[in-house]
Amino acid sequence: MKQLLTIALLISTMTISSCDKRVKHSSENPLITEWNTPYGIPPFDEIRDEHYAPALKYAMAQHLAEIDAIATNTDEPTFDNVMLAYDRSGELLSRVSLTFEMICAAEKNDYLTEVEEEMMPQLAAHYDQILMNDALFAKIKVLHDKRRALGLD
Description:
By secondary structure, the protein is an all-alpha fold. The protein has helices spanning 2-17, 52-71, 79-88, 91-107, 110-131, 134-145. It is elongated, with a radius of gyration of 17 Å. The two termini are 33 Å apart.
């Protein structure tokens, strides 16, 4: 399973590196940079349609790296280093995909439809890969099995 995850991360990295060079780097893609906007809303005036696919691919790779860090952590599983880390993972992906979904609902065009058709199966496979991560869920099972001793409310 670890080899499969490593291969998936390698493929994700290669996919990201082959993206359109104009929007590859986070400094050039407003979807994957810090948003200095009122109330943290997306900087819609800076986002172009061609930003979405590279941002989604970048965010998926980052999310898998965060999940891999949890799954391969050699420390004893604790609520903080497993469940809280899992809960915090994928923040960028959530932000980018929510923005993409909002734009598709409000202003979909032919290009965004193509991006949606390309990315939706990749997003589904991405989440399946996480849900089927044996190492991650072995850690979750350890915590579940000792949940009464953890002092959680």
